[in-house]
Amino acid sequence: APAPTPVRHLFSDPAEVEALRGNLLAWYDKCKRDLPWRTLAATEPDADRRAYAVWVSEVMLQQTQVATVIDYYNRWMQKWPTLQALAQASLEEVNELWAGLGYYSRGKRLQEAARKVVSELAGQMPRTAQDLQKLLPGVGRYTAGAIASISYGQATGVVDGNVIRVLCRLRCIGADSSSPAVIDRLWDMANALVDRIRPGDFNQALMELGATVCVPKAPLCRECPVKQHCQAWRRKLFGKPTPVPDVEDCGVGDCPLCPPAAEPWDSSLGVTNFPRKAAKKQPRVARTATCVLERRGCHGALEYLIVQRPSSGLLAGLWEFPSLPLDQGLQEQKQREVLADHLRAWTGRPVVAGGLRFIGEVVHIFSHIHQTYVVYSLPLDGDVTLDPALSPSRWVTEEEFHASAVSTAMKKV
């Protein structure tokens, strides 16, 4: 059985919980940012349309900053203002609008879930966090909680990166904040704290606090509306707890939420001692040979060959220049030879390795891959017949290329 959580890590005083809720909501009403999805959620009378607006924003905001998302969100809602409109769109259209936003599987899963709502759920969104998570592909615990609380008024908490940071500081939780045991306790805490009358506003307020005040570095503690409830803030002001623990302090060495003994409080860090995370895994290093094949089109404009990636895996379904993963340590001449062999299938003619013009290298960092593209160019004379048995491919002008569903990495290339 898991070790019991010491009282000092919990919100055990009902009066304190009520005060925290009130202070946070009053601050949110006064200081919240004007964001398009909030405007839609606040003004849309239909709960399902409201849920769709919140759902799109939450999916886009996963792993992506607010400033980047706003333009994508506005274009998306203009093109597909309802869940039914999105269900009728093609994956190609979704990928084209999503291009540059990253983590492309998010858009694909969003559309798949929209189609399921229309075809299997009679166009009605599930209305509880449990059903949203159970019935909609790609909707996890956090997204389900956000939709259910903001759109349907369910008193359920949410835990995202901002909430983790706020709660860990409020209650001096210094164990690895990415561990399942700590995450479970944080969900318990979020569900206990959420305001029963304004759950959606409370959850947004908690996230807003983490995004604008309780930030990772240099938090604005003096502006924090709940600093009087923050254990990390008190510890910063008054130093370490007394050597003799009181009834609310942890036992020695067996608290599942305290920092490990090997990582004591660093007074120079103050509240940024929390949260603590496990060391990040180093991204895998990969190299890929990429060739920009070009020809003169029938109107004299340069055209470039792009091919479609497989429907699963990294950058699924997006378009790219013909590319080939390279083994580590491959010499340049060998790189040219394996790329020339690969290009023969696309051009239907022999490709001489020496005819490939080396352009340079492009580095692109995915979340888990440090990718280097070794870029070559090859001009072609005459018509090239593309083999329909291969992956989908087409010739595009530069303008058509930028309007296609291509990744940021290919735009760099």
UniProtKB/TrEMBL annotation:
Chief location of this protein within or outside the cell: mitochondrion
Catalysis performed (reactions): Hydrolyzes free adenine bases from 7,8-dihydro-8-oxoguanine:adenine mismatched double-stranded DNA, leaving an apurinic site
Biological processes annotated in GO: base-excision repair; mismatch repair
GO molecular function terms attached to this record: 4 iron, 4 sulfur cluster binding; 8-oxo-7,8-dihydroguanine DNA N-glycosylase activity; adenine/guanine mispair binding; metal ion binding; oxidized purine DNA binding; purine-specific mismatch base pair DNA N-glycosylase activity
UniProt key word Hydrolase: yes
Cofactor, free-text remark: Binds 1 [4Fe-4S] cluster.
Top enzyme class: hydrolase
Gene3D superfamilies registered for this protein in UniProt: Helix-hairpin-Helix base-excision DNA repair enzymes (C-terminal), Hypothetical protein, domain 2, Nucleoside Triphosphate Pyrophosphohydrolase
Residues making up the signal peptide according to the UniProt record: none
Origin: domain of life: Eukaryota
EC number: 3.2.2.31
PANTHER family: ADENINE DNA GLYCOSYLASE (PTHR42944:SF1)
Protein name: Adenine DNA glycosylase
Underlying gene: Mutyh
